[in-house]
UniProtKB/TrEMBL annotation, chains A, B:
<feature type="domain" description="Ppx/GppA phosphatase N-terminal">
    <location>
        <begin position="19"/>
        <end position="302"/>
    </location>
</feature>
<comment type="similarity">
    <text>Belongs to the GppA/Ppx family.</text>
</comment>
<dbReference type="InterPro" id="IPR048950">
    <property type="entry name" value="Ppx_GppA_C"/>
</dbReference>
<protein>
    <recommendedName>
        <fullName>Exopolyphosphatase</fullName>
        <ecNumber>3.6.1.11</ecNumber>
    </recommendedName>
</protein>
<dbReference type="GO" id="GO:0006357">
    <property type="term" value="P:regulation of transcription by RNA polymerase II"/>
</dbReference>
<dbReference type="InterPro" id="IPR022371">
    <property type="entry name" value="Exopolyphosphatase"/>
</dbReference>
<feature type="domain" description="Ppx/GppA phosphatase C-terminal">
    <location>
        <begin position="316"/>
        <end position="480"/>
    </location>
</feature>
<dbReference type="InterPro" id="IPR050273">
    <property type="entry name" value="GppA/Ppx_hydrolase"/>
</dbReference>
<keyword id="KW-0378">Hydrolase</keyword>
<dbReference type="InterPro" id="IPR043129">
    <property type="entry name" value="ATPase_NBD"/>
</dbReference>
<dbReference type="InterPro" id="IPR030673">
    <property type="entry name" value="PyroPPase_GppA_Ppx"/>
</dbReference>
<dbReference type="Pfam" id="PF21447">
    <property type="entry name" value="Ppx-GppA_III"/>
</dbReference>
<dbReference type="Pfam" id="PF02541">
    <property type="entry name" value="Ppx-GppA"/>
</dbReference>
<dbReference type="InterPro" id="IPR003695">
    <property type="entry name" value="Ppx_GppA_N"/>
</dbReference>
<dbReference type="GO" id="GO:0004309">
    <property type="term" value="F:exopolyphosphatase activity"/>
</dbReference>
<dbReference type="GO" id="GO:0006793">
    <property type="term" value="P:phosphorus metabolic process"/>
</dbReference>
Length: 512, 512
């Protein structure tokens, strides 16, 4: 176990993330510092980093380095993007960083930036294809991911700062400016030939601008979850945010709920770049990836491979289980038993997986593997804490709906009867994600009780019950346990679910 | 780090708790198994453990041992209480346990039981004095704790099982039975001479019966927190639960929300013992301790001292910080800075500590030391996770009200303006514990922003700002930082609270 720092010297802001690295390729973000240094400000014409911006950058790097020292972080990867890349006085700045702070900076090309964005996204979003977009202060990265590989990649040599400076959008935008800006962006996208070759695909958005767009949308809708990664937005919703943003001057924008006040001045230009791209490519859906260039650098550094992982969900489960030191053998055994019970009993569900919005197998996998994660809060009532922990653990590769269903099922692995009304989420708005009636309620409750049975059958965590064979009659469900030893206590414990089981499945439960 | 198991062979149930032991005397409960074996059942007259009960106990111990093996738990402390202690065929049972399971059992006297109960309570409840009561299946322990020492201790040689058997209370109770039972209990308490010597003191309740009484009360009241340890009840509330319980037959009792169905049959007798003691001693208040004999055994085993800890809150903070591997130096520095700010600015609070229900210094200590505990869920939005984690972490020595206030303050260490309406607790019933207006709101918000300032001043966690000196004018609060280096970035970061500070304190904030 050791710490790894990624320092990202951007044109708009400078960031450092601190990660704790564990065995395998597991890591957790443990700290983050951000300073809006605006290193790229005022360099548009001369292409020189300004003295006061460099001073502030050095001062910020010193603070970052102090945090590294305070946390015994010796492995530090420092990268710089557009502002430094394009500055004619780049060497002067890099030498100061080396001399005064002792850091070696790797200057990334635009294509490098896009490549690490892709690593961040492909390892954390369970999608085969998509258009990745990252709007920086000094450049915009566009990457076409096809079959989880980079098919095309282009870096545009302007970013949110340039747009704002060149079109003078700090305060507000008028119709004429808007027309000019749209033409400019349209032309820029036109020059990327592969953009028009793409099929209708999803936009996979990375970086602060798109995060702010998503947060504004969540606040407007009173979205019940405070989770950004994997948040989905329609093109209409993005347009609504853009209309809101451009109708306000700077002071008014600072009061938009969800918009960072430090980003308010460059936000008209930044969000116009998103809105115009969506129109240009006729994109219907945006998925936000909270993992971008910095996480991409970490994944790339740790994996030492030329390909992102194949299975995002399993990779993430393993990562989290390592981080929380969870008993993987027991969890996997519970998964095997519950999945086997589900497969044998799913004809008793009204749920039709083909009509169900979400991947029920993935949902069961995550719920079963993570059912004990709540232990990390407190052993007592840990099934309830599992709900909170799983929902907020940052597991990758699930839609919010799938994640919420998994969390409810994990929480139901004990005392199923209390589970559904207990979690004090905003109920009215929660209905937008899952419907606690019909197939969703059935998926949670019927599967939750199977998890509870599986857990009882492995009470002593030694895999004593190796498999289960179910037979279904008109009256009854019979579960035969295949075990290598006496299992009376396990079976009696599992049979405590019988009353609940009968209510849910309409059949008596027999385990032997 | 290693595991420690405590196996408790009781007269009613058998339990095993598994604890993970860390450096210092820190431990966390990581698993628990319970089986209602009723080893003491049917032995009242012959004083012999029955064959079928012994068989079930052996089978249960095998399951416990399997879990120890599966979790590499080599250190196992096995104790037995009243049923084994009083059985004439004790040796036969102990030899079987040794031969078939390989465990050495320590048979505790009633006074031993009380002593470990006292260790569990004194290390986890921040009280100087109280009457500790533990109702077991085969005995009742009464311990008078005075100045955190055992002043008197008595073990009554009957428990909930005996009462239920002897007065035939499995199903229901009639008036005649009730009168007889009350007389019997009254006489038994009368024979404990020191009970009438006590001043009016609190009952510190331990064990399953009192836990169930508390849970019934919580459900009746729609209590917003799902926390039992340190839950307070009045004598009226206990009487209400008793009236409810004794008005119902067994089948009806099984439907009482909060009452374990496995305990329903012995619950009239068990709760009568509590109710009668409270009347007998004229006790006005019960405080539940979820830590009893098993935790007492763990504390006693780990501390290797003849005295429980002096400072329950600090001991618990240290325990939790060790368990979660929190940065204690940084946390302590944040505490020092926030406490210093509070001490210098408290005249600007309307809050009068003397009239405030709770210990404001303790509240600030816990909030500051634990402010980053939410990192363990997810770095992102960790201030919000700190609310959940702190509330549910099982920290000892705070009333629920103090704990809730601490959690709100910890959650306010970033973005204070969103904090108060975000935590989706049941708001109506929450008002019973804290009032999010008046002094409580002030305590949360004004202190929360001080914690936010302290956190900014130690952004790089290196203690760069060593102290703060405040001066207050009509218009302004000036905070002078005593630092060993340049702190422009820290001060600028702290000044981002200025707008919020002015709203709360009615004065401009100046930091230099």
């Amino acid at each position: 176990m050791h710490n790894l720092a990624i320092i990202d010297i951007g044109s708009n802001s400078m960031k450092m993330v601190l990660a704790e690295v564990k065995k395998g390729h597991s890591f957790t973000i443990i700290d983050e510092l951000k300073e809006t240094v605006r290193l790229g400000e005022g360099m548009s014409i001369e292409k020189k980093l300004k003295q006061d911006r460099m001073d502030k950058a050095i001062q910020t790097l010193r603070m970052f380095k102090d945090l590294c020292d305070a946390t015994d972080t010796e492995e530090i990867i420092t990268v710089a993007t557009a502002a430094v890349r394009e500055a004619t006085n780049r060497q002067q700045f890099l030498q100061r960083v080396k001399r005064e702070i002792g850091l070696d900076v790797k200057v990334l090309s635009g294509i490098d930036e896009g490549y690490y964005d892709y690593w961040g996204v492909a390892n954390s979003i369970d999608k085969e294809d998509g258009l990745i977009m990252d709007i920086g202060g000094g450049s915009i990265e566009l990457i076409w991911m096809k079959d989880r590989k980079v098919k095309e990649s282009t870096s545009l040599s302007f970013g949110a700062l340039d747009i704002t400076q060149n079109f003078d959008l700090y305060d507000s935008i008028n119709e004429e400016q808007e027309k000019e800006l749209e033409d400019f962006l349209h032309d820029a996208y036109q020059e990327v030939p592969w953009l028009s070759e793409m099929d209708h695909t999803a936009l996979l958005g990375v970086g602060g601008t798109i995060k702010n767009i998503a947060r504004i949308d969540q606040r407007k809708k009173d979205y019940p979850l405070n989770i950004l990664h994997n948040y989905k937005m329609s093109n209409e919703a993005i347009n609504d945010v853009y209309q809101l943003v451009k109708s306000k001057d700077l002071e008014e924008r600072k009061n938009i709920s969800g918009l960072s006040t430090k980003r308010a001045d460059i936000f008209i230009g930044a969000s116009a770049a998103v809105k115009t791209l969506i129109d240009f490519c006729d994109i219907k859906k945006l998925i936000l990836s909270r993992k971008g260039i910095r996480e991409g650098l970490i994944y790339h550094h740790l994996c030492r491979s030329d390909q992102p992982v194949k299975d995002v969900v399993n990779f993430s489960i393993k990562n989290i289980m390592n981080n929380f030191n969870l008993n993987q053998d027991h969890a996997y055994h519970i998964y095997k038993l519950s999945k086997s019970l589900y497969d044998q009993l799913k004809d008793l569900y009204e749920l039709k997986p083909s009509e169900f919005n979400g991947d029920i197998d993935k949902i069961i996998l995550v719920a079963a593997m993570m059912h004990d994660i709540g232990n990390h809060v407190n052993y007592y009532d840990h099934h309830e804490h599992s709900f909170y922990m799983l929902l907020n653990s940052g597991i990758n590769g699930l839609s919010h709906r799938e994640l919420l269903l998994s969390s409810y099922i994990a929480a139901s692995h004990r005392h199923t009867k209390y589970s559904l009304h207990k979690y004090n989420l905003n109920r009215a708005s929660l209905q937008k994600i899952i419907n606690k009636n019909g197939p969703d309620k059935e998926a949670i409750r019927k599967t939750g009780i199977l998890l509870e049975i599986a857990e009882s059958l492995d009470r002593s965590m030694n895999g004593i019950v190796e498999a289960v064979q179910c037979s279904i009659t008109d009256e009854q469900v019979n579960i035969k346990t295949i075990a290598r030893e006496e299992t009376e206590l396990e079976i009696n414990d599992a049979l405590e679910t019988a009353e609940g089981f009968e209510k849910l499945y309409g059949k008596k439960l027999n385990i032997y």
